[in-house]
Amino acid sequence: MPEGRQKWTADKLPENYPQCSRRELNDAIKDLSAELVTKSIRDLKDFDNKGWKERVVAFIQIGSSELQHRNSNYALIATLIGLFISLIAIYISVASLKSSSRWEERQIQVLEKQASTQERILETIKDKVQAE
């Protein structure tokens, strides 16, 4: 156990357990599990620990359930952020596609105009050559 860390027992849990900090919750679950194993083995013969054991197991289950709930909240937040980023990427892709299509249309118009101009120049040259 790291120096300065509070050791938790079934009789002394963090304030607002299981709504305490993540670190306190993890530490409490570890300590309660260790306490359950140690006392169960040590006092197996002469300790009527049935009620105590049920209480400790309930505390461990409640703490573990709270950790799972918090982790699922983080997963949900991460999923929503991923969805938001994906929507932004789709928007940018569509905008880029539209912009590219408009640019292509303008280029086609410019090329058609140039082709028309070249045809008129060729016609003019042909007319001058035939006139001579």
What would you say this structure looks like, in words?
The protein is rod-shaped and about 125 Å long. α1 (22-42) runs antiparallel to α2. The protein contains 2 helices and no strands. It has 132 residues and is mainly α. It has one domain (22-131). The protein is 78% helix and 0% strand.
How many distinct folded domains?
1
Q: Could you report the average pLDDT, rounded to the nearest whole number?
A: 85
Give the N-terminus to C-terminus distance in angstroms: 107 Å
Strand content: under 5%
Can you tag this structure with a few keywords?
132 residues; mainly alpha; 2 helices
Tell me briefly what this model is:
This protein has 132 residues and is mostly helical. The chain is built from two helices and no strands.
Topology of helices and strands:
Layout: H1 22-42, H2 50-131
Helix pairs in contact: 1-2
